Every structure is written in structure tokens, then in C-alpha cells.
Amino acid sequence: MRTRIHGVRYPDSARAVLQGGGFNYAGWLPNQDAPLAFAQARLTVHIPRGPYVRALPGIPTIRVFEALACGIPLICSPWSDIEGLFHPGCYVSAANGNEMQAALAGLLRDEDCRAELVETGLRCIQESHTCRHRALELMRIFETTVDRASDRSEQANREAALQ
Q1: Signed CA dihedral, 111, 114, 116, 119: sign only
Q2: What is the C-alpha separation between 151 and 154, in angstroms, rounded?
Q3: Judgement on whether residues 157 and 126 belong to the same structural domain of the protein
Q4: What count of other Cβ atoms lies within 10 Å of the Cβ of residue 6?
Q5: pLDDT tier at 127 (50, 70, 90 boundaries)?
Q6: d(CA 18, CA 20)
Q7: What's the pTM value of the predicted model, to 2 decimals?
Q8: Are residues 11 and 88 in the same domain?
Q9: d(CA 29, CA 19)
Q10: Which helix (H) or strand (E) is 24 found in, with range?
């Protein structure tokens, strides 16, 4: 099985372990190349850097959205989807190395499971995470902000008139 790993800030010791295990460490992957990399793979694993997970708990990186949108089965290190961004069954969560190995082996063997993950992930993206969704969300935020500013201005005018 060919395996390619992308990522940043891998220390030399980690790269040596990867190389010793027969993994192809390919370094940084530019954002525009992610869809092609996903299209060439049977599945992907996403493990965000520890400082990111600690600083922004419950917030996924963009790679989770990209993988699901590209229709690739995803195995992810655990994180708390506190905002309910993803449907159950969009991805497989693996808490440690043993779970990750089991998830990889299982998905590589089970084409039906991979297909189900792809279908669920794509449906989630289409239902909740398109550019249209983000544009509408931004417009709602803008309208709410404008309404609040207008309310504050009216309140200030009323208070001024009472003085």
C-alpha cells in the first residue's frame, strides 16, 4: 500500500520514523492542491496539530471540510463537535494509534463502509457547508449587526430627547 503524508512542522525524528515505516512524507500541501491529493487517495487521515486543538477546542480545521467535500472517507483524531457541524457518520474518529490502525485496516477492507462515509460526508457538506451557506450566514450576521446599531442609535436619540 502506498501512503503519502502531508503536514508541516514534523520534527526530524518523526520524519525518520515515517521513512522507516515505509511512508512517503511529502511535506506541506498548498491549499489549491488538496482536492487533487484527495482525489488520488482511497481515504485520508486528519490529525490536527496539538496547539491548534488546545487553542480552539471544538473547531475543526478546513481540511475536514475539504476532505468531506471532495468525497473521500475521513479518519480523524477526536475533537468535540460542540456546534453540531457534522452529521453522525461523516467520518471515523480514532482516539489513539491502535484505534487508528484498526480504522485504517477496516476502511481499506470495506468498500461499502467507505462508500457510506463518502455519501454521508457529501450530504452534510451540501446541506450545511457550501459557499452559499456561508454567504447567507454572513448576511444574517451583517443584518443583525446593522439592526443592533440602529436600535442603539434610536435609544440614544430617545435618551437625548428626554434630557
Answers
A1: negative
A2: 5
A3: no
A4: 17
A5: very high
A6: 5
A7: 0.80
A8: yes
A9: 18
A10: strand 24-27
Least confident span in 56-65, 122-131, 134-143: 56-65
Measured distance CA(36)–CA(68) in Å, rounded: 13
Which positions ≥6 away from 95 have C-beta within 8 Å? 77, 78
Pair (29, 95) in one structural domain: yes
Residue 56: what residue type? L
Do residues 17 and 45 share a domain? yes
State whether 40 and 111 are in the same domain: yes
Do 115 and 147 lie in a common domain?
no
Same domain, 88 and 116: yes
Q: Are the CB atoms for 54 and 82 separated by under 8 Å? A: no
Q: Alpha-carbon distance 129 to 132, whole Å?
A: 8
| Number of domains observed in the structure of the chain | 2
Domain interval for residue 150: 131-163
